[in-house]
Amino acid sequence: MKKGLILTGTLFWLVLAIPTFAASDKILLGDMQDGSLAQPVHLINLFDEEGQRISPDDELVLPFSMRGSCADCHDYDKISKGRHFNALLPDAEAGRLGQPWIYVDAATATQIPLSYRPWEGTYNPGQIGLTRWKFIKSFGRQLPGGIGEDADAESPDLQARWTVSGELEINCLACHDGDPGYDRAEYATQVARENFRWAATAACSFASVKGSAKKMPETYDPFMPEILDDPKLIPPTVTYRESAFDNNKRVLLDIVKKAPDYRCYFCHSNVKLQEPDIQHWMTDQDVHLAAGLTCVDCHRNGLDHEIVRGYENEASVSTNSLAASSSCRGCHTEGRLGAPQPKHAGIPPVHFERLSCTACHSGLMPQQKTQRIKTSRAHGLGTHSVNGSADALPHIVSPVFAEQPDGKIAPHNLIWPAFWGDLKDGDVALISLELVGKAAGKILDGGKASRSGDWPDLTAEQMTKVLVALKNTVAKPVYVCAGKVYSLDKKDQLADVEDSAAKPYLWPIAHDVRPAAQSLGSAGCSDCHTTDKPFFFGRVDVDSPLVSEAASTREMIEFQGLRPFYTKAFAFSFVFRPWLKIVALVSCVLIAGVLLLYALKALGCIVKVLSEEEQ
Amino acid sequence: MFQVISITGFIIVFAGLAFHCLVFPVSGKHKWSPVAVLKKLIHLLTVVLLPQQLSLLGVLRKLLYFLTLLCFVVLAVTGFYRPLVMDEHLSGYLLMVHATFAPVFALCVAILAVMWAHHNRFKTADWPGLLRVLRRFIRMKTADKQDDGGQSYLVQKTAFWLIIFLALPVILSIVLGMFPIFGTEGQQFLLNLHRYSTLALTLTAIVHIYLIIRTQMK
Questions:
Q1: pTM for the predicted model, two decimal places
Q2: CATH number assigned to the domain covering B2-124+151-217
């Protein structure tokens, strides 16, 4: 009886498991490698998210779904675990610190680095009450997709909104569409309208979307749309260009294996701000691009989309087999892709132990004070709603030469977190934005801030008022900014203290890369080793909404784990270096002269002895 | 690697010197007692402050010798401490002290070479064994002539010339690294050359100092 049960159980398990194994091992048509390097033509049928083939003359025209249209030939599930899409996966490798999403609310003087990855110094969006829905609303403009509803965390109201708006599926076309008409800015606009389901379709040159899910009632069903009473309510609808479809209802998608640079740039552009007269066309691009390479020549990935980030030691955490050889050192020591092998003539080897390659070759050339930059992801560059003001938050300063966990100094971008929190057991917990808005909204002058996107002019008096107001909702309210934690003492007077909770968030940068002739050190040791050079002694802007802290700066060396006096003394010692060289060379000439003189004398003796023998 | 080689080198040299002391003790009333060595060192260090029978050049020569000795001690301590004790590269304040004393040492060694080269030239008396061998092959007219009362300073002089010779790679390996001539591999080679030539120079200098003290104590 017992044996029979075990046998039945085993057979049952096998019956269930075999299809699972079969499915996971199956290589789909588009993922097969037959050896051809030709570009596959994607003349395909499009399918909506319910699996129905799309035709422009359908009664109900729906946006096409990436999963529905691509997953028949490509392993969508495997791709969804790739670097660009796996931030929400608990077992995804966080890797080296990267650029966070930065939540900004000028009206409440808030600037917080967020990430779903457990990067030290960032906060999980959930900590400030940003559900996935709100996260997409804030940052979906430059998300590659792959974020759906988290039913446990969303309120019933938001769950209904997900039904109306749909999931923000992985947008394959964001990177792989070679059609110059593919409009990422339109994608961002559709996300802002909460048309998540329609966003990828709307960006295509053969489709247009009008209407807004944002304005639709929670009961609206896009698959069975009813006629709305209010003529002002326009439901999201898509219209396909009929000529884009052939007789078999197929569409030619200009899919490229290698993502073009301009696709990467939509999310990965940087621009410096403090030289308004200098425009983009006056600047040099990354030396690798200038040499004819593309982003994906170095940042490669296979089907699993585990793209190489390119930093040293990445191989220890990455499953990408090219991770080790795709760092600066990897290519430039092996000479891959024609990478020149660096000579580094006259540079002592200790530099390669204490500095990353990027320290000398990447980012902005350091000046006496750090500069402000804007990035695509932080400022929505390239979207229709971008705030063109140079003062727009978040304020990112660059380059900051800081020590990395591996002990090497590398250039970083930096932001100073600014937020309202609750001090609990020595830790600062974030207060939800809603509560802060209620407490601070009337006290802070959000009007000015909202126009320029800059900080409001926060005074100590205003800060005190907000903290007093927050005392009604949290036990020990504090405000974090400029590396300090501000709180109220027993007499409700403002007090500040430097605290690790307020430390800035820095992430290493690697682009744009400058060639050897334009690198730090190309003009000699004095590029860094003098007492006034910015690499060690530059001033790092301390960004703060607090008026009294507006011009505050810190010395670069504070971020480098070096002793200030020693570094200053060491830099000063380079004044004497030319003398050292002269003294040493003169000494060598003297010593060599003496050695030569007595060597010749010795030779003379030998000659004399041998000559006497012959006589 | 360098740590192991250095420690082995120091052990061998100090063991060799100790062995030499035991097997060939200094004759006469001076013995290798700690007090005798201390007295000699104090005498050496205070010699320039005491009334001298030497000429001005002689005083300068001795002064220079002590300055070289001081630089040598400072450079040896700062240079070997981290590599030997902590197995790390020279860095921090030790590096700064090292780099401060290095040019003084280089200049002192160069001037010492000029001032002491003639005194340390090899003479026929330094090679009695070699002369005997040579006599079998050639007729040497000066073979029987003995300088310095026939006393041989072969090892001491050889140590002197080795120090002078090794000073060249020691100094050049650092100075050339400061010019944009050598790439990364070249720089690494120069660094290793500096390490090992310095080790050889230090060990030779220890032998040299030992022989000088021994000579003085006779």
A1: 0.85
A2: 1.20.950
